[in-house]
Amino acid sequence: RQMCIRDRTRALRDTLAKAAPDLRASLVEVESVVGGGALPAVGMPTVALAIEPGPEGPDHLAAALRSGQPPVIARLVENRLVVDLRTVTEEEEEALLAALVKVAGA
After folding, report:
1. Collapsing DSSP states into helix, strand and coil, what is residue 43?
2. β-bridge mates for residue 75, sequence order
3. Which of 10, 55, 59, 76 has the fewest CB atoms within 10 Å around its CB?
């Protein structure tokens, strides 16, 4: 049974809080871009994981995630790093968690 995006995001936030307590994460309402082509500007309301960047700032955190293996691409919104699980399969969540924990310890 697949979990909904909100439940998956909440579960990731809770697991991240235990695994990397220095990363302050919360759920935020955002709008995902549906796609390109005929619908380039159409958005879809969703919930995402927002991570406070810490003293180094959001660009440093985003760069550390992009340069990891696997690379993690996230958006910067209101000075926070935002990860939309709509772009992450359930099978990829463990790797995403590991990447977030790794940058928290760096």
Report:
1. strand
2. 82
3. 55
